[in-house]
TrEMBL record:
Name of this chain's protein: Probable electron transfer flavoprotein subunit beta
Signal peptide residue numbers: none
Function: The electron transfer flavoprotein serves as a specific electron acceptor for several dehydrogenases, including five acyl-CoA dehydrogenases, glutaryl-CoA and sarcosine dehydrogenase. It transfers the electrons to the main mitochondrial respiratory chain via ETF-ubiquinone oxidoreductase (ETF dehydrogenase).
Lineage per the UniProt record: Eukaryota, Fungi, Dikarya, Ascomycota, Saccharomycotina
The keyword Transport belongs to this UniProt entry's keyword annotation: yes
Cofactor(s) for this UniProt protein: FAD; AMP
Location in the cell: Mitochondrion matrix
Quaternary structure and interacting proteins, as annotated: Heterodimer of an alpha and a beta subunit.
GO cellular component annotations of the record: mitochondrial matrix
GO biological process, one term: fatty acid beta-oxidation using acyl-CoA dehydrogenase
């Protein structure tokens, strides 16, 4: 009989999707002071999918473990995931570089941390958001699969598991249609927006989440170097769009396009 699913779901604390990001005064990062944070929407979908897999069959899933890498404030993000139905959570606490800000992790560093955690957890399935809405890198899942030497199915819009064989089938949207992949465990899946709609969190679930097991580890505990390899020199907002104009004839339109260098 195939092994039961031991699922790890990485989650990230990001600026709330309803907030318009602003560049800080130094022009080298997004302003985070006084800004509302929440669970990354793609990560929320990943947690929901893990919970739905468990609900689909009482014998399919053994455990659902959340993991997040960030400051101590990321514990609120983990509690949000626990309230959705995950069993336990681990915070990989990132040291602060000053009194107010933690080190910003690059996708490769996150993938290395997750690799070490997945190995430590004896997981056989990772379900994670395809990207975070703050940096939109869409790299960590692919890097993690490569580091683990596991199969991967990205941008999933449907996930099914054959309990008899342990084979996971994933549908993903591609240009012009849908692609369907099948792979045995272990596997890394990254989730797209159309995979599911996360459930509304009830007050009683929020209260239960406070009693669920959580722990903290450090990058040193996992034996991972998280030193930055990239430096952001500057950030700038895109130029504001100007209003369009009207022309009286086709000849005038062509002349205007030539003037603008469009033709």
């Amino acid at each position: 009989m195939p092994p039961r699913l031991n699922i790890v779901v990485p989650v990230k604390r990001v600026i709330d999707f309803a907030i318009k990001p602003r560049i800080n005064a130094s022009k080298n990062a997004i302003e985070t002071n006084g800004v509302k944070f929440s669970l990354n929407p793609f990560c929320e979908i990943a947690v929901e999918e893990a919970v739905r897999l468990r609900e689909s069959s009482k014998d399919l899933v053994e455990s659902i473990t959340l993991v997040s890498a960030g400051s101590a404030k990321a514990q609120d993000t983990l509690r949000s995931g626990l309230a959705l139905g995950a069993d336990k959570a681990t915070l990989i606490e990132i040291p602060a570089i000053d009194d107010s800000k933690s080190l910003e992790l690059e996708p490769l560093a996150v993938a290395k941390l997750l690799k070490a955690f997945v190995k430590k957890s004896n997981a056989n399935l990772v379900i994670m958001g395809k990207q975070a809405i703050d940096d939109d890198s869409n790299q960590t899942g692919q890097m993690l699969a490569g580091l683990l030497n596991w199969s991967q199915a990205t941008n999933a819009s449907k996930v099914t598991v054959d309990e008899a064989s342990g084979v996971v089938t994933v549908s993903r949207e591609v240009d012009g249609g849908t692609e369907t992949l099948s792979a045995p465990l272990p596997l890394v899946i990254t989730t797209d927006l159309r995979l599911n709609t996360p459930r509304y969190t009830k007050l009683q679930d929020i209260m239960k989440a406070k009693k669920k097991k959580t722990e903290k580890v450090s990058p040193e505990d996992l034996g991972v170097d998280i030193s930055s390899r990239l430096e952001i020199l500057s950030l700038s907002e895109p130029p504001k769009r100007t209003g369009g104009g009207k022309v009286d004839s086709v000849d005038a339109l062509i002349g205007k396009l030539k003037e603008l260098g469009a033709i």
